[in-house]
Known about the structure:
The chain is α/β, with parallel strands linked by helices and 296 residues long. It has a single domain (7-292), classed as TIM Barrel, CATH 3.20.20. It contains 10 helices and 14 strands. The chain has helices spanning 30-43, 64-77, 94-97, 100-105, 145-157, 169-181, 206-213, 237-242, 264-277, 285-292, and strands at 7-8, 10-13, 47-50, 81-84, 114-118, 122-123, 127-128, 133-134, 140-141, 161-166, 188-195, 222-229, 246-249, 281-282. A hairpin with a 4-residue loop joins β7 and β8 (133-134). Pfam families: BKACE (PF05853).
Amino acid sequence: MGVLDGRVIIEVRCNELTMRDRNPHVPWSPDEIAADAAKCREAGASIVHFHARDARTGAMSGDVGVYADTIRAMRAVSDVLISPTLGASTIADPHERVAHIPLLGAEAATRPDFAPVDLGSFNIDPYDPATKTFRNETLSYVTNIAGLRHEIDAIHDSGVLVQSVLWNVGSARLLGAFLDMGVLRGPVYAHVLLANTFLAAHPPTVSGLRALVDFLPDHPDLHWTYSAVGANALSLVHAAVESGGHVSIGVGDYHYNELGAPTNADLVAEVVRMVRSVGREPATPAEVRQAFGLGA
Length: 296
């Protein structure tokens, strides 16, 4: 039996895109993110994904010092595993996009555990059915194969594990190709990104989830999770867990106003309740470290 048999990884996506006018509990500053991470860990989370943001305005920040301060603050209060962003469509050049990971990885105190790489190129095309318009018609997140290989190599060379982010079936097939080539190696952490408004991604429905999961490569050491951008991810917890998957959730992806603007820890507690209702338990950070071969 594997260390994660019967265990569910709960990853928190704490402050992706949501602003405080939609949910006042989105953490921005390093200390806020650290305090939020500690509460999520206590509730049952094992990984926290964060974006560096301006502490006053919430604007996205590419300052490596903010990343470093955030990781130090998180490590001081919790043993949760840490996954900072690469900046996604806000940084066009793949070399610039990943540049902070080697800098953070140079010191044990600031080295992340995971770093996400979006496998493919996608239109950033949020569609608003209420107005029948796209909120953006010009922005694309473009990364060719050479750029992806650079990002992956830079992350590996920094002692950090790649989280392969999959938007669609093409992403899943690319993951299989990279594993076949040895560009990526196990253990594999695959992230099935579902989205309500980004049409390049699969919809956040059971059929949308299964349509992508069906194309995951057959690898003996692959673990997958899912998230739902712009949608309530709780609706897919049972479908994912019963299919052998894990859960990534947070107010950064969606405001959850229909639940009264909960905190990230509130969402984690609800996921824990749901996974226990089907006979599973939340994985601890120590169990996740062991499963992925990460040092203490």
